[in-house]
Amino acid sequence: MRHALLCCLMTGCVELAEVHAEGGSSPLAAAPPAAAPLDPFVALLSAPWALADGFVSPAPAPWRPCGLGCFEAKAEAVAVAPANGRVMLAEPGLVELEHHFFENHVRKSARTRFEGLQHSLTVGQDLKKGEALGKGSRLTVTIVGSEEDPALFFAARPQLPDPSVEPILALIHHDEQELRILRDGVEVLRAEVGFGQATGAKERRGDNRTPKGVYRVVQHSKGPFDGPFGAYYGGHWMRLNYPNPWDAARGVDAGLITVAQQREITQRYWAGLATNERTSLGGGIGMHGWAEEWSDTSSRQMSWGCIVLHLSTGAGVWGPAGRRRGGGGW
Predict the structure, then answer these.
(1) Which ranges in the chain are annotated with CATH 2.40.440.10?
(2) Secondary structure (DSSP) of 117-151
(3) Which fold has domain 64-155?
(4) Which of 128, 205, 226, 274 has its CA 20 to 30 A from that of 145?
(5) What is the DSSP letter of 231?
(6) What is the pTM of this model?
(7) Cα-atom radius of gyration of the chain, to the nearest Å?
(8) Any idea which fold 163-325 has?
(9) Which among 182, 174, 35 is positioned nearest to 106, based on CA atoms?
(10) Within the chain, where are the H helices?
(11) pLDDT tens digits for 223-275?
């Protein structure tokens, strides 16, 4: 069993570039009025086709590597789509797919190019991860616009989050200082929230910052909460599984945790479990109320890193978080 609420802590807004005259710096006089910026919450989940939930090698056995992005087989072999995507280019011996995906809370896209295949694909066709692309005996794979080794690109992303498929989702926007709860993609709650006493994304223990990322609620309680700070839970506590794999990767790069700790954090995260909170990355991050009701006009830098809910909001968030559903996953 696992808790149903997934929490995506994000930042940044969709911005529209100003239209300029070719070869100059002045806006075009006849340019139409700019469209209203897309709601950042809507923009985050909007996708033209199924998001990639992870990548696989497009050239499984019997294909063998023969160089950077090169694969060969003794006889004709089937190459497969490395992730969910759409065919953007289909010519004899050439296919390009476009993939949209999340890396932690950040929406990204990538285009993969395959040369040397016999195929019957058409532009606009949607493919699922592992679905056949075509056949051949020598295949060249590239990530369009990148010099990264495709094999390393795929191997680094075996699992990716897809908040859009979650039955219950909490979206929390740092810049907008706002929480939205979605049930089956439909908004059911919207509220103002507070954050840690220090600005920016959490990096290490004791920095009093709120993390940015995708986390699952792994514990919830209505108390009673003892101790000198028990009142600051405000009658509700929902623990998130911070740190996540991206926090752990950052921690290894910064020398804050070991590779073994990174591996453990990653395994437990994808199993939907609480992760190690006793490393230098910190822990004990969650959502809770406050000792008393607070004003939206007051400072939002309130906690030691947790998301602070209005007392009236806690029950609304608690309702979805307090329900469980079975199944594996993350």
Answers:
(1) 163-325
(2) -B----TT-EE-TT-EEEEEEEEEEEETT--S-HH
(3) Glucose Permease (Domain IIA) (2.70.70)
(4) 128
(5) G
(6) 0.85
(7) 23
(8) L,D-transpeptidase catalytic domain-like (2.40.440)
(9) 174
(10) 40-45, 150-155, 245-253, 259-270, 311-321
(11) 889 999 999 999 999 999 999 999 999 999 999 999 999 999 999 999 999 99
